[in-house]
From TrEMBL:
<protein>
    <submittedName>
        <fullName>Uncharacterized protein</fullName>
    </submittedName>
</protein>
<dbReference type="InterPro" id="IPR046144">
    <property type="entry name" value="DUF6146"/>
</dbReference>
<dbReference type="Pfam" id="PF19643">
    <property type="entry name" value="DUF6146"/>
</dbReference>
């Protein structure tokens, strides 16, 4: 009986010391690899001829792997948040000595009276969430995942 316990402990010790196998991460690994290939995200509504191009390494990965899925927030929720967030963002663009001009490069022309559609509002809101997390920025309206 004693020998059986020793053999069992020795077997567990050998098993636990073995090297780990490389596992495929599936879709999330593919997203991370694609992130290095294409770090540009286009936010557009072709019918309104409206377009924002975001060139920020990591945003496309954030949008595909970290952000809440499309449909989680309603369009009216996103529009209300974007109204305040765009205003804050544009104010920071106008004050380059107070805020980092590498983060706040260009103003966003966002008119709350225009229906840009769900996709534009979703990606724009998640860009603000990404900014607040990556660069530790705080806006007047909380950005949450």
């Amino acid at each position: 009986m004693k020998n059986l316990i020793y053999a069992l402990v020795l077997g567990l010790l050998i098993y636990s010391c073995s090297s780990t196998k490389e596992r495929s991460m599936g879709a999330s690994n593919e997203v991370a690899q694609n992130d290095t290939v294409s770090d540009t995200v286009r936010i557009a509504n072709d019918s309104l001829e409206y377009e924002i191009i975001i060139i920020d390494p990591g945003y496309s990965y954030f949008l595909n792997a970290v952000a809440r899925p499309e449909g989680y927030h309603s369009q009216s929720y996103l529009e209300n948040k974007n109204r305040f967030l765009v205003s804050d963002y544009n104010q920071r663009v106008r004050e380059p000595f107070r805020y980092n001009p590498d983060i706040y490069t260009q103003e966003i022309n966002y008119d709350p009276n225009i229906d840009y559609g769900y996709d534009v509002n979703y990606k724009l809101y998640n860009y603000f969430v990404y900014l607040s997390q990556k660069y530790n920025q705080r806006f007047s309206v909380p950005t949450r995942l």
